[in-house]
Amino acid sequence: MSTLEKEVEELQKALEGLETKSLSVAGIEPAAKNGRAGLILEGEARANLGSDSVPGTRYLLYSNEALPGGDRVRLIGPALTQLPREPVAFAQAAVLRGPEVTSEVFYQFVQRHQRLLDQPGFMVKTAKDRLMARVSPQAAEKGLEAVSATFLSRIHEAFPQVQAVDLVWVTGNEALVRRLEAAAEAASELITSIKAGVWKDRGFDYKSCQLAGHCGSCADKKTCSSIRQMEAKVKLRHRREGASRATL
């Protein structure tokens, strides 16, 4: 059973009674595997989702329970073309489902989430549980159906263990976005424990091992070297993202 089953159940309860619209991705051709949005300036965007002044959050979970009927996509709030051009509250809740979805699969999904979601016309920025997006006029016309089709296709290609994805978009409903933001923050300790367990299974205790170099207390010098390389890549990515944000 998933460590996050309780959180999945609470998410469904939070959505009960709310007016939702089902979005169909049938027949929509997904964007290229490595297709990215590139830079979309705020003034050029048709929709600005989340910002420094309004909440934007992602709430990522997994469950070992199957989802009858396969992938499900729902929208709470206006369509992209019905939104004002100024930033609006925004959230994405995504639950990976299936008996073969492990903590390792979930961890990898969380790590790759931004790249899986970022696509032509839909520029994504993330920081922990924060989520912001800018949508080009062309992509806004295609709607979140097209965004979802690409996102789901990439998930299934990267993680064949995922039987289905339960995907919820929230646009403009600030109260609900803040509720999901609080839920994501409350679940962060559990997700950190999942991360610790994944790395422990790999033979690395990220809470106690020294990233500066091999400390000599274990025989796994190769693991230490790999971690140092990963840390350097993460720092470089953060510098690049910071430089990119500075130009916006």
What report would you give on this structure?
A hairpin with a 2-residue loop joins β6 and β7. The protein starts with a helix and ends with a helix. The protein is globular. The model has no long low-confidence stretch (mean pLDDT 89). The strands form 2 sheets. A 5-stranded mixed beta sheet has the order 1-4-8-5-3, with helices on both faces. A 3-stranded antiparallel beta sheet has the order 2-7-6. The chain has 248 residues and is α/β, with parallel strands linked by helices. The chain is built from 5 helices and 8 strands.
* Poorly predicted residue ranges: none
**What's the total count of β strands?**
8
- Strand order within the widest sheet? 1-4-8-5-3
Q: Can you give the mean pLDDT?
A: 89
Share of helix among residues? 40-55%
Structural class: alpha/beta
How would a textbook summarize the main sheet?
5 strands, mixed
Give the end-to-end Cα distance, rounded to a whole number of Å. 43 Å
Compact summary:
With 248 residues, the protein is α/β, with parallel strands linked by helices. It has helices spanning 5-15, 103-117, 137-158, 174-201, 221-246; strands spanning 21-22, 47-49, 56-63, 72-76, 90-97, 122-127, 130-135, 164-171.
SSE topology:
Elements: H1 5-15, E1 21-22, E2 47-49, E3 56-63, E4 72-76, E5 90-97, H2 103-117, E6 122-127, E7 130-135, H3 137-158, E8 164-171, H4 174-201, H5 221-246
